[in-house]
Design goal:
Blueprint: H1 9-35, E1 40-44, E2 47-56, E3 59-65, E4 70-76, H2 77-87, H3 95-110, E5 119-125, E6 128-137, E7 140-150, H4 153-194, H5 211-229, H6 237-274, H7 283-294
Antiparallel strand pairs: 1-2, 2-3, 3-4, 4-7, 5-6, 6-7
Length: about 325
Amino acid sequence: MEPGDGMSEQEEGCRALLPARVQMEGSEKLESSLLTQPWASVCFGKSTFLAKACFNASGYILLISDLSSIWYERTNTEVVGQRSKELNKRLTVHTSSLLHHLSSLMSPLLAGEPDTTTSFSCHHVAGGLSLHVKSELSGLPFYWDFHCCPAPPEMVSRHLLRPLIQMSLALQYQVQELTSLLLQKDAEIEDYRESGATLSRDRLRTEPFQEDTFQQNFLAESLPQICRAGEGTAFTSALQQLYVAVTQQEAKQNEKRRRSEDAEGLASAAETTGHPHPPPPSQENETAFSSERTTPTSSPARKPQLPAAKAKPKKAKGLFS
């Protein structure tokens, strides 16, 4: 359809902006979905990393860290298609199929069950990290390179620092509740003993729980072992579940905040459009209104006033007149 053939300029502009709007919405959904993806431990050669990734029809985002630095790559469909042409000259695949294939290659790796037919290798480059993938697609060799650059501080805070702080607080409250429950159980057991109850098996006997003693023993004995064993396995299965639960709460709050801001913006726009501010009254109208307001209600009927354009202007009384 040529411009002007049944389509206004405004409609043409909206039609031209539609792909960009769809791409923006897809990018926002991608970022939101990445937030609730748990970190997973992955091994490339002798090096252990933490990684998380998310793919959809608009592109992908990859985050990877060696606990010293964090790198990321965010791409769209245009970059994916162009890079595939450079790396896989014999393949002609639609971008959506490429993204789906990349997702199928990364998912087993992040789940701790890498596919034996796919190899991953990484090496540091100037100012970033490169992750090389070698696999197959439609019976032909398939190659892919993730070009990761240092993640900005806001991304590091959103995906790692803030969730870890919230997880620490959640675990602290959990420990407090368990401590309270143990003390209640000890009180219940003591009541049974005072009532004459005895254990049928003496090996089940336990000492009353002492919170201070438990904390001291934990810091002196258990904590060093946990720190040594935890290298490279920062997120166990239980911690991954806690991470997902924490980030889902943040995602809900962000969505609620966004909807509230959108509603306020729509209300403000509707108020501005439907109730424009009235223009300031002219000096003549203001003078006439003032004289009408000060006229007593008991005075006789006044003669109709002449139109403002024909009324003789009164001399303004200023402070020095």
